[in-house]
Fold L-threonine 3-dehydrogenase.
Amino acid sequence: MRGIVFRGDCTLELATFPDPTPGVGEVVLEIKASGMCGSDLHWYRRPAGEVPAFIAGHEPCGVVVAVGPGAVGPHARLGARVMVHHYKGCMGCPDCRSGWPQMCRTAPIVVYSADAHGAHAPYMKVSADTLVPLDERLSFEAGAAISCGTGTAWGAFERVGLTGRDTVAVFGQGPVGLSATMLAKAQGARVIALDIDESRRKTAKEFGADAVINPLDGSVPEAIGELTGGKGVSISLETSGAAAANRDALDSVSPWGTVCLVGIGSEFNFSLAKYLRTQVRILTSWTMSVQAQRACADFVVDRGLNLDALFTDRWRLEQAEEAYQAFNRQSGGKGVFLM
């Protein structure tokens, strides 16, 4: 089979690999949809020689087509429609057993696409412990989104304890930010969506944002203050990974509010003296637990949310070079490879 491998310096290759065979406790999926995640671009842009030679793609969704010895669980069966929680730890420590294998401190963490082959290929081998069921009412594309981008937004809102009483500023309206806008509105919150790209602001309005802001138009904290009667928002969710957005997220939240940082790639400093008496909480959030991934999927089904609307680009593996060149411009919606 052929799979997409990043080679660094914004290049990639459709490399040839043997079809996978499941080992003990493993299954093989026939991939139906493999989402493109913003974190892919960090690998795609790295200098040549600094990128692992594994098949890319950590938003897998497909059907079980082979089951290895000792692979147990209700989803480790031929024909099962599944998503993948794309981390594997020791599977025995408290973090792993509570659904957080990415927090494992007992064994090296495997992140599919970084430490083992990912999903940008016709087939993918994974541990049976990583499987999460995909409801028949969800498309494979929706399952791919929930496997990282949409699930990351859900996990962040679990961290902050979002309620319908909150006013949320979502910084960045890429796939994670748009998912956050959709999920927050479905939970009754008021949403202010921010992005420098006009098309993404337009999509945010279509997804239910109560107001949109272009950060290039002026002071973001002042604009948010005008929209909230000077109070600020109760929750700032930063998904863009831009240092300026991190600072604006902190300056736009009300006293006793919460800032949740999700976006990767930036560094910023702040004065403790400036914020100490605001009693704000500053949290990080790293994707979601296995249980949260399933809860997100259940919520999407229960509320009838149209996750398929996240996708603006659907690609074949043979279009990989064009797909990532387009994604690297970061001006559209979400892309997905369909097998």
